[in-house]
Amino acid sequence: MIQWREKLRAFAIHFAVTLVLAAGAAAIIFGLWFPDPFDRVVGGAGLFVLVVGCDLALGPLISLVIYNSRKSRKELFFDYSIVAAVQLAALAYGVYIVAGSRPVYVAFVKDRLELVSARDIRPAELAAAKEAQYRSLPLTGPRFIYVLVPVKEQSDALFASLDGNEEAARPRFYVSYDSQLESIRARTLPLAELEKKHPEAAPLLAAAIAESGLPATKLGWMPLRYRDNFWTALIDVATGRPAAYVEFDPY
After folding, report:
1. Cα–Cα distance list, 115 to 42, 165, 218 (Å)
2. Whole-model pTM?
């Protein structure tokens, strides 16, 4: 006779343990790798939910099937060792996949910000970085950098971009963001022009201005691009850095 109460208890315990592991992974992923709003820009949240959702469902469901109080401790230990190994491997693989899509740099390129994921940067480009700090990928969230292409390398950069290796994904062109604040400020566009051009976005912009904690007179804007997806970054003209982000294509 099937002891459903015992099986459901095993299911609940297994689910709770799996949930704790998933919560730990989520803390790293969304606390460090995908700070708001980059989880929505890149789509990391959806991928994480898919991976962890499968792990949460599969492991405890296996418990529901394999648990039997008549088994010896040795048999239960063997069964659960296999289940734990499979679950941990699946979770580790899922975190690895999510880690590859994490944003590592917010790059200023010409007249816009571009979000660069870990997978966008080729190993050879990483090794070719002129500054040591850019030869490894950040693990604690995206860093702001400025892309500066020397005149003598602009032709190479153009052809590489056409081949899919864009300037923002080439650490050899990275320089400190703060060292180029004047250039960034010069390319920050007036917020009034955006509001005039897109009156339909007024509620979104008003909410973002309130979120920034700054008056509209101290804000400008520039596009934020991730592949074919565009958002709008509201820029604090004093610091040159985004004060808020708007899920709105300014083009």
Report:
1. 9, 14, 24
2. 0.85
